[in-house]
Amino acid sequence: MSSPAETSRGLRPLIPVVVLLGVMWLLEILDAALPGDLDQFGIESRDVDGLTGVAASPFLHADFAHLMANTVPFLILGSIVALRKPRRFWPIVITITVVGGFAVWLLGPTNTVTIGASGVVFGLLTYLITAGILTRHWLDVVIAVGVLFVYGGILIGALPFGVSSGVSWLAHLTGAAAGVLAAFLFARQPDGVVHVPQ
Q: By C-alpha distance, which of 150, 154, 153 is closest to 169?
């Protein structure tokens, strides 16, 4: 039976996931409570000022329903990544955020502001699927099959006809592509892997 200290150490990799979600919720509460509109700080395509949105957009949401829709998959997929690759969690998330966000800034419609963590969610999903293919470790393969079974259906949202009006399929697509890139960069790196008997 694990001691409280051992349990605490085992859950420590989840702290970044909880912190990121906490920032998302805090900003949405502030956005609802205060005058002004934080959503204006999202990604505004091909506008130099809009580049700040590459970092800010995952933390900004249109409303609480939008935030809630991203919260559960981000918590689940982010936790899996954090537990499987505790020392690579930040590089993986930063790669997905920066590469996916910059692609939206470069390719997105003019005079459009893109916000939300769904691009990161798509990136975490494709990271886990691609990691299973690349490493061929039985645990990564099981995780890949599991997340594909549970969340694979959302990948249609990375296509123009797979989303409703006002939802950025491009952010989903670029986030997914960035997740694949992150897997090629980090999935096969042994440092920080939670070792499981072969």
A: 154
